[in-house]
Amino acid sequence: MNIRKWYFAINETGIPGYKRLIQAAVLSCKQNTSLQPVCLYYGHDVPFLLWLESQNVKIIRHQSSILDAINSTPSTSQWNNITATGAYLRIDIPLIEQEDEFVLYTDCDVIFLKEITDFGETPEYFSGAPEDDPENWEFANTGVMVINIKNMRKVHADFSAFAAQNLTRFAPKGHGTYDQGALNAYFSGKWSRLTLDLNWKPYWGISPTTRIVHFHGPKPSHIEDLITDNTRHLPNVYKGLFAKNPTSMAYYLGRFHAIEQSRSANANGIRYLGYIDAIKTSNNEVTLSGWAVDLKGSPSPSFQVKIAGEEVDTISVLRKDRPDVSRSVAGAAIDSGYEITFPISEEILPEKIHVLPYNADEPLSFAKGFSLKRNN
Which keywords appear in this protein's UniProt record, sorted alphabetically (predicted)? Predict the structure, then answer.
C-alpha cells in the first residue's frame, strides 16, 4: 500500500482557532515525511491561504456534498451547522481524489514525528485507531484515517445520504459528534485497525515509535494552561485526560514547541532555540533537562544558569541525544539535549531560573508550571 498524499480539511471560520495547529502540522509533515499536503477548504479568500501556498500545500476549494442538509439543520447547544460545513468536507475525499488508491487523512491537530512508509494493513474502507483508550477498539477515532479511495467511492452516495439524514443524531454522544459518529455507525464492524503510532494521543505516554501525535482533547494551548493550573475555563474532560499522564503531555507539548520555534527562527533570524522539558529535585540539587540549538554557530551550545539574574555554579552539564530535535530543527546536532544539575539553598520559584546559552540575550523557553520544591 503506497501512500503519497496527506489530506486535511478546514473551513473559513475554523482558521482563527486552528491556524497555529495547521502551521505545526504542515511544517512537521514537510520536515519529517515525504507526503504531499492537500487542504480541502470551504470559504472565502483569507491571508492564511497564501501561507499554505507558500509551503507548497495544494488547496482544493470544495463545499460538502451534503451542504444543503447541513444548512437546513438548525444549530443546537451540542451541534453547530457552521462547524459541520468544515467537518463534513472529508467525506468527499473519495470523490475528489482521482490519482491514488489510498490516502492519509488527519484532523488539523496533529504533528508528524517520523517518515511514514508502513501504514499497516490495507483497509477495506478506512482504518482508524481507538478514541481515548488504546485497548478499546469498539469505536474509531477518525482524526487519523487511511482511506481506501475506490471502495469508499463505491458507497459514497449511500453513506452521504445516511450522514445527511442523521446530522444531529450523534451529537449527545460527545465523541460521536459530526461525521465521526456517522462513520462509526455506518461502517460498524467494517473499519480496519490503524497502528497506534499513527494516531498517538499525548496522554498515552511517551513512545519512541510514535509517528503521528494527535492532540486529541486538549490542544497545545490547553496543555499550556493545564500545566500552569490555569484551568477554570477548561472542560472537565480535558482535565481528566491531562491527569492521565502530565509528564507525557508536557513532553509532546515540547515537541510541538520545537516545530513552532524552528519556524519562528527561520522567519525572524533568531539564533538560539531551546526548551526546558522537565525539572527534578533531590535534596538541595535541581536537575533541568531539555534541548538547545545554536542556529548560527555550534549546533550544541554551552550553557549558563542564572537564578534571579545571578549566575550559579553547575554541578554537572551532560549532553543527551535528542533525535526528535535533530529531525525537527534544521542544523540541530543529535546531542542537542542537555541535563544540567546545580545546587539550591532554598525554595526557588521556577520563573526565577534562567538557562542561557553563552552569548545569548534571552533565556530558553521554560516549561511553565513545573513545581520546584525540594523533596522531603
Answer: Transferase
